[in-house]
């Protein structure tokens, strides 16, 4: 991702909105979204994580799953927006918790994964 303040979709920190030259989402070495859209980012990251676990379930792998929400203006996708009594922060935390739960559930049901370690860190 590019400079996070440059990617502010709320127009609070950057009056002209997200910079099309600073805000992008990569997949490996390819830009797949420019400017980046935060409103569907958690759902997209979650699906990518689930797909990765499916594709590598019979192999050993290290998997780092990190959400950008703790570091930027808070966003939540439609199913989570306005659902928390804590405003945008609560909506974002709820969506991250849902996402982490989806990945943990997937790891739990992988047939040949007898050794698993899961670490959760808010940073």
Provide the spatial order of strands within the biggest beta sheet: 1-2
Briefly note the structural class of the backbone: mainly alpha
Distance separating the two termini: 16 Å
User: Low-confidence spans: pLDDT under 50, at least 5 residues?
Assistant: none
Helix tally equals 2
Beta fraction = 5-15%
Q: List the secondary-structure elements in sequence, H or E.
A: EEHH
Count of β-strands: 2
Please state the overall shape, judged from the principal axes of the Cα atoms.
globular
Proportion of residues in helical segments:
25-40%
Any idea what the radius of gyration is? 16 Å
User: Main β-sheet, in a few words?
Assistant: 2 strands, antiparallel
Provide mean pLDDT, rounded.
78
Structure description:
By secondary structure, this protein is mostly helical. 30% of the residues lie in helices and 6% in strands. Strands 1-2 form a two-stranded antiparallel ribbon. It starts with 24 loop residues before the first strand and ends in a 15-residue tail after the last helix. The model has no long low-confidence stretch (mean pLDDT 78).
List keywords for this structure.
mainly alpha
């Amino acid at each position: 991702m590019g400079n996070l303040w440059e990617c502010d979709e709320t127009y609070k920190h950057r009056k002209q909105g997200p910079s099309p030259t600073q805000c992008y989402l990569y997949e490996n070495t390819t830009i797949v979204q420019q400017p980046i859209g935060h409103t569907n980012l958690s759902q997209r990251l979650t699906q990518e994580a689930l797909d990765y676990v499916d594709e590598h379930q019979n192999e050993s792998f290290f998997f780092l799953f990190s959400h950008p929400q703790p570091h930027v203006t808070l966003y939540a996708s439609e199913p989570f927006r306005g659902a928390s009594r804590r405003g945008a922060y609560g909506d974002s935390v709820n969506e991250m918790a849902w996402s982490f739960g989806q990945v943990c559930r997937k790891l739990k049901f992988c047939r040949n994964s007898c050794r698993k370690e899961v670490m959760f860190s808010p940073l």
